[in-house]
Design goal:
Strand order of the largest sheet: 1-2
Distance between the termini: 38 Å
Number of domains: 2
Order of helices and strands: EEHEEEEHHHHH
Radius of gyration: 17 Å
Number of helices: 6
Largest sheet: 2 strands, antiparallel
Structural class: mainly alpha
Bound molecules: zinc ion
Number of strands: 6
Length: 143
């Protein structure tokens, strides 16, 4: 099978959700997938619209570790219309995933940190200072 990145013959191809011409995925050999940082924990990372990536296993691990602080942080966030977008999004996500909002919140913070290679403390501090979680919405600008 031909790797769409190096053109080499590969025993195994990873389907990476990165644009390749008209296609929304690129089939890459293990070397190429590793080279662009698309593999972790032996599987393909989640890829976002801006092609930033995060491993779902790492996200879950990190989210588990910050759950207590996230619970405290969540209770400090305003619930008025300034954060309506965030509140609505959190509600939707936790409904779809059938989990408490604090878990979705912790995962969103962990995802943001891993996507942009910053520490979770940095993301948490930003949310805390701004009293807004707008920066962790999936559509928000990179941190
Ligand atoms: Zn390759
Ligand atoms: Zn990982």
């Amino acid at each position: 099978m031909e790797c769409q990145m190096c053109g080499g013959d590969a025993k195994e191809l990873h389907v990476i959700p990165i644009r390749n011409g008209d296609s929304y995925v690129t089939k890459a050999c293990t070397d190429c997938a590793e080279y662009i940082g698309a593999l972790c924990h032996g599987k393909t990372k989640l890829v976002f619209e801006d092609e930033s990536m995060a491993c779902s296993v790492c996200v879950d691990e990190l989210a588990g570790r910050i759950q207590d602080i996230c619970r405290a942080l969540l209770s400090e966030l305003p619930t008025d219309e300034t954060s309506a977008n965030f509140t609505e999004w959190l509600c939707d996500v936790s409904n779809v995933l059938r989990e408490p909002p604090v878990e979705s919140f912790a995962r969103a913070i962990a995802t943001k940190a891993l996507r942009y290679n910053v520490s979770v403390e940095c993301v948490i501090t930003k949310v805390w200072r701004e009293r807004s979680a707008a920066c962790i919405l999936p559509s928000a600008a990179p941190l």
